[in-house]
Amino acid sequence: MRLKSPKVVKCIDYNLSDAINDNIFENYIFTSNIEGNFKIKDIKIDSCIFKNIDFSNIEFINIELIDVIFENCDLSNKVFDFQMLSRVKFINCKMTGISFIESKLNDIEFLSCKSNYINLSSAKINNMLITTSDLSYLSFLDTKIKNIEFVDVNLSNAEIINTKMNNVDISACKIDNIKFDNYSLEGVIIDSYQAMELVRFLGVKFK
Fold this sequence. Notes:
The chain is mainly β. Helices cover 9% and strands 35% of the residues. It contains three helices and eleven strands. The strands form two sheets. The protein has an eight-stranded parallel β-sheet. A three-stranded parallel β-sheet has the order 8-10-11.
C-alpha cells in the first residue's frame, strides 16, 4: 500500500499545558503528561508528535489532525467524530472505545495498537493500514472504504454491516464471531479455515 507518512520534521520540545493555553499545535513534540482537566478545541494539530501521553483528562472538540504521530499514548474513549484526519500514525497506543463516527480518514496507520471497541461507523476511509493490532468488537456500519489493509489483526466479534469490503484481505486476521451482512461479505478475501466461520452468513447448514 502506498501510504503517505506524517510529515513531522524539525519538531520542537514543548510543554503540553502551554500549548493548550496558547492554543498552538504546530511543529511540536510533547512527551510530558499534565495534571488537571483540559480541552483542546477548535484547532488544527499540524506536524506534531505525542509520546507517552495519557489523554484521559483531555477532551478533543472540533479538531483537525494533519501529519501527527501518537506513540505509546492512551487515547481510550476519545471522540474524533465528524473530524478530518490526514497522515496520522498510531504506534503502540491504547485506544479502547475510540470513536471516529462520520470522520474523514486519509492515510492512517495503526501499528501494534489496542483498539478494541473502535467505532468507525459512517466514516470515509481512504488508505488505512492496520498491523498487529486488536480491533475486536470493531464497528463498521455504513462505512465507506477505499483501500484498507489488515495485517495480523484481531477482528473477533467485529460488526461489518452495509460496508463494501470487496477485495479486502482478512486472511491473516482472527475473525471469531465476526458479523457480516451479505452485502459486506461479498468479495472479501479469506483462507479456507475462515470459510467455515463465514459460510453461516450464506444460509448454509452443516449436517
